[in-house]
Write a structure and sequence with these properties.
Blueprint (H helix, E strand, L loop, with lengths): L2 E6 L14 H18 L3 E4 L6 H10 L4 E8 L12 E5 L4 H15 L8 E5 L4 H4 L5 E8 L3 H9 L1 H16 L10 E5 L6 E4 L8 E5 L4 E8 L2 E6 L2 E6 L3 E3 L1
Parallel strand pairs: 1-2, 1-3, 3-6, 4-5
Antiparallel strand pairs: 4-6, 7-10, 7-13, 8-9, 10-11, 11-12
Helix pairs in contact: 1-6, 3-6
């Protein structure tokens, strides 16, 4: 199952227009809103902390094995342009087809909720460390201009909508079903002979993640057309629902 490094901004001094808060505060709120949906959809994640920096976030990301590095930021205009610009940018490293593909999924989703969809676009860059220096394919999102009052207001009132959009785009990128929420329940493997195969996706053609013996205890996270998304230890995967007892 896919694992991402989630890197909300650590820029605590970037103030939003009209005193609405800071970039660090709102991007961490966005990551908070994403977490239960990531778990519900079977996407594992590691997350930075507010006391880290961009450099230490890159270092932590590169110390692990991740399928995507996702940085959450908001933008500000340059000198003499404060408050004049709006829009969303999804940065990726040129020559990274997976980074570009992920950026395109994010942009397609965000266009549906941002009030000015023509100003939502992807952009290649070689200057941003969190897409240039990460080992994993990476996307850095600038989710509006926080020095613009309209954008700042949109950001703080659309955290839940952005969270759902971003996680939905991640499931599309990874080829997984999207679940906005879950009510995990205990489960037990019930096979008369052999083992229960657990797959990366709800398909017998996907990669085999693990094999579980009769009586193994799991957590059932969600159900999808005859498959259960299950958690066992620090792993997750899909198993045929016929061979699991729930409750």
């Amino acid at each position: 199952m896919p694992t991402i490094y989630l890197s909300p901004s650590t820029q605590e001094f970037n103030e939003y227009a009209d005193g609405l808060g800071t970039e660090e505060e709102w991007m961490n709120r966005l990551a908070d809103a994403m977490e239960p949906q990531l778990t519900a959809s079977g996407i594992r994640f590691t997350r930075n902390t507010p006391d880290m920096t961009a450099a230490s976030s890159i270092q932590a990301s590169n110390a692990g094995s991740y399928d995507l590095h996702l940085a959450l930021h908001t933008n500000a205009s340059g000198s003499g342009q404060a408050g004049r610009n709006r829009g969303i940018l999804a940065f990726y490293y040129p020559g990274s087809p997976r980074g570009q593909r992920a950026a395109e999924f994010f942009v397609d989703g965000l266009k549906a909720i941002y009030p000015l969809p023509a100003l939502v676009r992807t952009e290649p860059t070689t200057t941003i460390g969190e897409v240039r220096r990460t080992r994993a394919p990476a996307v850095l999102l600038e989710l509006g201009f926080h020095d613009n009052p309209e954008d700042a207001q949109w950001i703080v009132t659309h955290i839940d909508a952005m969270a759902e959009s971003l996680v939905l785009s991640l499931t599309e990128y990874f080829g997984l079903p999207f679940f906005p929420a879950s009510t995990p329940q205990p489960g037990e493997v019930r096979v008369d002979l052999g083992v229960l195969d657990v797959y990366a996706r709800p398909s017998y053609d996907s990669a085999l993640v693990a094999q579980l013996y009769d009586g193994a205890r799991v957590t059932v996270v969600n159900e999808y057309y005859g498959w259960y998304l299950i958690r066992f230890g620090d792993q997750v995967g899909y198993a045929d629902a016929r061979f699991l007892a729930v409750g």
